[in-house]
Amino acid sequence: MSIWLRGASPALDSEIETWEETHHLSLPGGYKDMLRVHNGGLLAKNHFPVAEPTSYGLADAEIYSIAGLDGLQRHILEEQDVDLPGNQVYFHQDGHRYIGLDYQTAEPRVIYVDFETLQTLVVAENFADFVESLYFSPFDVAFAPNYPLEKLEQMLAMANVQKALEILQLLEDRAEKDWYLTQIDGLLHSEEAPFRQIGVTLLENQIYYFRRKLDATRVDEMLRWLESQHFWPEKVAELRKEWED
Predict the structure, then answer these.
(1) Closest CA to 177 of 147, 143, 213, 127
(2) Mean pLDDT in consecutive groups of 10 residues from the start of the chain, 245 residues
């Protein structure tokens, strides 16, 4: 299904049935079809139109992923302040902004709820129409340091070599070092040499400038992986020496 960029292993029909029986709700057929491809993951499309301005913009809102069965949210903390009528199942969250299924109608509608501004919008009369309305529009890389991690992961999954390097260089001093090392590790395991090369470059910068903030075990594992692959051996030898000095 072209809507997916990447995701988890498919959900089994038995798992879907168990979720529905547990929560006494039926998921839309289109949602279940998506789960049978990936049980949650990143989307290849990242915007959908809205009828009135949101905190994202004047005419659209953003989405980065759709939750698998374990990520669907029936009850959220924000409900303590704003109690919406009926049953809702949220499949996407960005801070205090949620996108979900609203079961006040025979076929659940898709709603956007911003609990910070107390804005609620019906964005589609059913899930199929919502999926049909999704489209791709690139995010501004210059603002990458201010983006949530899931948005960054969606950008990186779509990026070519040059764009991936540009994004990750802007994020070099980001506090989430475990997340950052995971992105580098993904590059190092790429089947394409240019991605592996920028992974080495980014790892070098982390070792030189942020070594005290890095997980030593993870860095050692990454260096051992590069050594086992005999990739860019002169540079990797330099990194090993710098890391151990």
Answers:
(1) 213
(2) 90 98 97 98 97 96 98 91 89 97 96 94 98 97 97 97 98 96 98 98 97 97 97 97 95
